[in-house]
Design a protein that fits this description.
Largest sheet: 6 strands, mixed
Helix content: 40-55%
Order of helices and strands: EEHEHEHEHHHEHHEEHHHEEHH
Radius of gyration: 20 Å
Structural class: alpha/beta
Number of helices: 13
Strand order of the largest sheet: 5-4-3-6-8-7
Mean pLDDT: 89
Distance between the termini: 56 Å
Shape: globular
Strand content: 5-15%
Length: 322
């Protein structure tokens, strides 16, 4: 028997929201999803008028939905933001080259300028070559560090004052669990914030902070958005995958666990007086770092010297603290 939309709009429901359990028609789901993102932006004061915002665009569902919704809300509510797309080509054959084609389609569909930077041009290495050197066990360490700095450098080149990323509620809950399991107190204290920044670095903004991954997929599907859905060929070996699987098991038992973990992370109280690393600049590239060499330059040096396999394990404690 058809179920009516719980908003009493008179239309039939086509989905049940994983986040709230309410049954909604397509139009009311769009409105609810977009209104929640708008509320996250306005209540958190994530942006200011005439700000130049670089949207991290990978071609995947999260960044595609982020770009579409940011463009939609900017027009609807007159945020007066200058939006741009920024993509990083890690050099992963059969994955990133295909997803960048999707980003280029989004550029044309949303009429937003696009800049693409590659690991090859920035570091002289592609991820395919990095994996040949270090294997699949630790490659995500290199990619994550390189990508974070590449986004920063690209945004600076574009003249942006912040970077908007497609991190969703599932991502943030996974990060809380990962930081607890690693004992990474410094990151645990800031990973739930909608805006994160450090001295000298551009702020990272998460407009999709409270959006469930399942609802992002639904939104992209019903909006008929073009996105690339293939997982990175090197991702199955990532440490994050263990946290993701654990979170999915918890979600089956308690559907609200994603938001519960985020709210718990937001309300953690840390002991005062703990010494934290002092931010400075990397002596090699000038990027923000708490050590003489930043994470990217440390890993790049290990690659260039043929010591990458030893470098990851020996420097892992330092990498977390930068």
């Amino acid at each position: 028997m058809p179920v009516s939309c719980t908003t009493n709009c008179g239309r039939k429901a086509i989905l049940r929201r994983p986040k709230t359990g309410t049954s909604l028609c397509k139009e009311c789901f769009f409105d609810a999803f977009e209104t929640e993102v708008h509320h996250t932006i306005t209540s958190g004061k994530l942006f200011y008028p005439r700000q130049l915002v670089a949207i991290g665009a990978s071609g995947g569902k999260d960044s595609t939905v982020l770009a579409y919704v940011m463009k939609f809300l900017n027009d609807k509510y007159d945020y007066k933001l200058n939006l741009m797309l920024l993509s990083i080509d890690e050099g992963i054959t059969g994955y990133r080259d295909d997803s960048l084609n999707t980003v280029k389609e989004n550029k044309n569909d949303y009429q937003l300028p696009l800049k693409i930077l590659s690991y090859q041009n920035l570091y002289g290495w592609t991820m395919d070559r990095v994996v040949e050197e270090v294997g699949k066990k630790n490659n995500c360490t290199f990619c994550g560090v390189f990508r974070r700095q590449a986004l920063e450098r690209g945004a600076v080149m574009m003249g942006a004052s912040c970077i908007a990323t497609g991190h969703n509620a599932d991502d943030i809950a996974e990060t809380v669990l990962m930081n607890i399991m690693r004992g990474d107190v410094a990151r645990l204290g800031r990973c739930c914030a909608a805006i994160t920044s450090s001295d000298g670095a551009l702020p990272r903004v998460k407009p999709l902070k409270f959006c469930y991954e399942k609802e992002i997929v639904m939104y992209a599907y019903f909006r008929k958005l073009k996105y690339f859905s293939t997982e990175c060929v090197y991702a199955p070996n990532a440490y994050r995958g263990h946290a993701r699987n654990f979170l999915k098991e918890l979600e089956r038992i308690r559907p609200s666990v994603i938001m519960d973990i985020i709210h718990s992370g937001e309300n953690l109280v840390f002991q005062t007086g703990i010494k934290t690393p002092q931010q400075g600049t990397c002596s090699s590239c000038g990027h923000v770092s708490s050590q003489e060499l930043c994470q990217a330059c440390t890993l790049l040096l290990s690659l260039n010297e043929g010591k990458a396999k030893q470098g990851v394990s020996k420097k892992s404690h330092k990498i977390r603290s930068t």
